[in-house]
């Protein structure tokens, strides 16, 4: 119940003005950049639905070659063909990626590196929330495994290609829920105690800390890394909780549409004024407050080393 309550705090406070103030407020910040992405290659994880799909639609409209990286290829193909038809951009391509399985992540990266010469934007968007206690194929707690470790490994495997294609950007979709998280090094996989709401918060804090440490390590490379909160968005994210599904329906008027929810991801991916901005956290297309735990560099470094150990990689 504590975890669910924390997640309810995601519902936005009232306040923004506009022609219809309520709707304008709920819609949140909009990416105003008209940047074109012809010739640019983008990977978006979890782009078969929700925020990821709308991010893919926007970047495809800008002319990018968009790799829709998702675990359900049929669902991905349905989304991709809809985007191709609407935008006229035929370079929206579906590739299989299951972030709950490091073998699948390695296969995805291997195929991508064999097929694509460049990578300019990596959007680590996929996520699970309120998952009943379960483990990934590699024995990681599901939220930590998919939301953090899966993207950590994916970024590691693709980083050289991003560096070669610089200027390049890494965009990590975190959440306001990171405020409720902590990195429980003594029980990372929730074996001793588990709360699915808190497990989500912990994994979203991990996204913020990963971004911070990654940006520090990438200083001077022209590869930037930023994280963001998309807002409270009407998507399938609540699907694992009947309580949250019900609440999302009741409060749907106060939630962003997926397209509105994609604005900050698009902003971090394309905005000209962010060319050399790195290690920051955004919400509604502007810098946002990061919790003290999300600014703890010692924890960020420790999480980095522990993540490498868990994944059996050396990333100096
Ligand atoms: N919605 C919100 O209010 C909200 C608020 C704050 C942050 N966020 C963040 O926004 C991001 C996108 O969420 P959303 O709201 O768009 O939710 P969504 O509609 O549920 O989309 C999540 C995406 O992640 C994919 N995914 C889940 N597990 C995966 C795995 N093991 N391997 C590969 N892909 C996997 C899903 O694929 P399937 O369709 O195959 O399951 C889906 O494409 C998440 O990181 C979430 O934490 C959302």
From TrEMBL:
Transmembrane segments annotated in the record for this chain: none
MF terms in GO: all-trans-retinol dehydrogenase (NADP+) activity
Enzyme class: oxidoreductase
InterPro entries: NAD(P)-bd_dom_sf, SDR_fam
EC code(s) of this entry: 1.1.1.300
SUPFAM superfamilies on file: NAD(P)-binding Rossmann-fold domains (SSF51735)
Pfam families tied to this protein: adh_short (PF00106)
Keywords, comma-separated and alphabetical: Lipid metabolism, NADP, Oxidoreductase, Signal
Protein family (similarity comment): Belongs to the short-chain dehydrogenases/reductases (SDR) family.
Record-given protein name: NADP-retinol dehydrogenase
Annotated source species: Dromaius novaehollandiae (Emu)
The organism's taxonomic lineage, starting at the top: Eukaryota, Metazoa, Chordata, Craniata, Vertebrata
């Amino acid at each position: 119940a504590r975890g669910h309550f924390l997640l309810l705090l995601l519902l936005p406070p009232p306040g923004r003005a506009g022609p219809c103030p309520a709707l304008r407020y709920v819609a949140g910040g909009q990416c105003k950049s008209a940047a074109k992405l012809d010739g640019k290659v983008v990977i978006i994880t979890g782009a078969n639905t929700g925020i990821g799909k709308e991010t893919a639609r926007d970047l495809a409209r800008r002319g990018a070659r968009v790799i829709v990286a998702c675990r359900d290829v049929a669902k991905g193909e349905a989304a991709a063909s809809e985007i191709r038809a609407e935008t006229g951009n035929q370079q929206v391509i579906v590739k299989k990626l299951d972030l709950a399985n490091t073998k699948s992540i390695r296969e995805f990266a291997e195929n991508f590196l064999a097929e694509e010469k460049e990578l300019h934007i990596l959007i680590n968007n996929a996520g699970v929330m309120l998952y009943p206690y379960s483990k990934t194929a590699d024995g990681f707690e599901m939220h930590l495994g998919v939301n953090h470790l899966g993207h950590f490994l994916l970024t590691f495997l693709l980083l050289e290609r991003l560096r070669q294609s610089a200027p390049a950007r890494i965009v990590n979709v975190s959440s306001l829920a990171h405020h409720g998280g902590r990195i429980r090094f003594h029980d990372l996989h929730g074996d001793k105690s588990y709360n699915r709401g808190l497990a989500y918060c912990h994994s979203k804090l991990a996204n913020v800390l990963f971004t911070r440490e990654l940006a520090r390590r990438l200083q001077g490379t022209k590869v930037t890394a930023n994280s963001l909160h998309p807002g409270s968005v009407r998507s399938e994210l609540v699907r694992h909780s009947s309580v949250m599904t019900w609440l999302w329906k009741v409060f749907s008027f106060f939630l962003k549409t997926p397209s509105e929810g994609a604005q900050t991801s698009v902003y971090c991916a394309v905005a000209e004024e962010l060319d050399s901005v790195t290690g920051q956290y955004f919400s509604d297309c502007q810098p946002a407050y990061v919790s003290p735990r999300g600014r703890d560099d010692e924890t960020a470094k420790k999480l980095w080393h522990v993540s490498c150990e868990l994944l059996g990689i050396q990333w100096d």
